[in-house]
Amino acid sequence: MLLIIFKSLINRVAIIILLAFFMSKIGLFRKLISKQDINVKDKILLSFIFGIYGIIGTYTGIPISGAIANARVVGVFVGGLLGGPFVGVLSGIIAGGHRYLIDIGGFTAFACALSTLMEGIMAGFLKKRMEKYEDKLAFSLITGMAAEVLQMIIILIFAKPFSKALSLVKIIGIPMIITNGIGIAVFIAITDSIFKDLETAAAYQAQLALRIANKTLKYFRKGFNETTAYETATIIKEMTNVKAVSFSNREGILAHVGVGEDHHFPGSPIKTNLTRETIKKGKYSVANFQDEIGCENENCSLKSAIIVPLTEGNKVIGTLKLYKTEENSITKVEKELALGLAQIFSTQIELSKVDFQREMLVKSELKALQAQINPHFLFNAINTIVSLIRTQPDNARNLLIHLGNYFRNNLQEGNDEVELHKEIENINSYLEIEKARFGDKLKIIYNIPEEIDCLLPPLLLQPIVENAVKHGVLEKIEGGTVEITAIDNEIETELIVKDDGVGMSPETLSSLFNEDNNSDSIGLNNVNSRLKNKYGKEYRLKIDSKLNKGTIVTMTIPKKQRGKFV
User: Contact at 8 Å (CB) between 561 and 501?
Assistant: First the structure.
């Protein structure tokens, strides 16, 4: 008997899985599953879809002893795992309510309806845990089987008489627990393939963002204005499938390319409420419907959009907007593309300040350091990231973040002093990019106490580390190690950068701080001058180097007390 029920249930579950496979190919279902922010309307639609799956599971069930051995839980449980508590509860009400109404007063009508609802609730609250679980197939199999165990317990509690309920559970319990658990796992595997397709698309979009960045670099390096915004918007429109691209500053539209050009004029005030809100809050916004965009023109064809703030330091200076003419059509991939472009453009806009500041503040010590930022480093970093896009998209995304942080920290006008950990964070961004380029040739060791209390001028330690990498370990074929150490005491902090690179001859070492020395030591000279000017001649750089052995650079940072250095 058990074997017959088991085979029959497998056939019923197979029908549900086949339907799931066909649903996974439908654009609307894929869009609903893949959306980053599911609104109430989406949740209701998903609830009805999975509720109907539950009803199909009931009708394809096997009548046994006044009850039905079925696959109803598959749709409801998957709905909860994918859509959260709202979808789990509502689809459970739909499928469970239907089960009760078709057999009012039946032996297991109430128990089956209640268990369906409870399983939907259980799945809804397991959604976040499943998202963190690496093996989603095993997670959904185990939790799905656990949900069916819960159903058997509910039948034993609420179905009367108990003896009849016990007899029923003995017959249908094991087959339903196993087959429905498998059905849930396979259903989740099918939907998971949608996310894997999206990851592939996201990798392509990341590569696309870098291609756009390469093409637009020459424009935003000239500043953020109507001309550069128009050229950049045109490139984005040509290289993506969005219907319109727009840039604005805090007051008005700088450029609008695509649908809506007839009323989104450059130079005119901002027309959408969502743009004003994004500038005010400094957080990206997604509009899924035309009224959410809030355009003042009633005939505007733009019906969904993502609006991302552009920043300069911690200040919002404008927005990037990607529009589409279909409602509810902004996907996760497009969101990531917009956020990635906004971060790159913010960095490019900050890069544009370098030229201006170099002209206006030629004698500034900080600008002298910023002038060392090598454009080859940027392009090498971009090429490295591009090479990782397809094979290691997560690593590529992390490196892009490091690249943005590196240039942001190097280009900010900033404070007179920063925390040592902030300086180390910036150095780490630089080193992560270099390690991605050179692999095992470059090894880094940090000896920085977590509780260390040290304030130092920005970009003071970084040139020393970069010098150790470029002119020390990477000059060796086999590479080497850079060790960064901080030793803290009551009156000062000793910072040591040690490498086992090619080192320097005594002649080179003795001429490092000569005014007529070559450009390779500009960074060391600058740091040495800043140390002496700020703290006194006794705080100059100390360098110990031996040819083919390595170099040790030491600087000492005194601590402040009542506004003066100790």
Answer: no
What is the model's pLDDT at position 203? 65
CA 168 to the chain's CA centroid: 49
Nearest to 341 by CA among 257, 435, 449, 229: 229
Question: What contacts 11, CB < 8 A, 6 or more positions away?
Answer: none
CA diameter of the chain: 101
- What pLDDT shows up at residue 358? 46
Supply the pLDDT for residue 91: 95
Q: What is the distance between the alpha carbons of residues 538 and 18, in angstroms, rounded to a whole number?
A: 78
Residue in 373, 431, 433 with CA at minimum distance from that of residue 398: 433
In angstroms, rounded to a whole number, what is the distance separating the alpha carbons of residues 140 and 560? Answer: 58
Stated pTM of the model: 0.43
Q: Is 318 helix (H, G, I), strand (E, B) or coil?
A: strand
Compute the distance between CA of residue 71 and CA of residue 59 in angstroms, rounded to an integer.
9
Tell me the C-alpha distance between 346 and 452, whole Å.
32
Q: What is the per-residue pLDDT for 362? A: 34
CA angle, residues 397, 400, 401, in degrees to nearest 5: 90
**Intervals of the chain under pLDDT 70:** 1-2, 24-38, 197-206, 351-377, 379, 409-415, 515-522, 560-566
Distance CA 128, CA 369 (A): 46
Q: How far is residue 557's CA from residue 296's CA, in Å, rounded to a whole number?
A: 58
Residues 6+ apart with CB under 8 A from 130: 81, 136, 139, 140, 143, 188
Please give the pLDDT value at position 363: 39
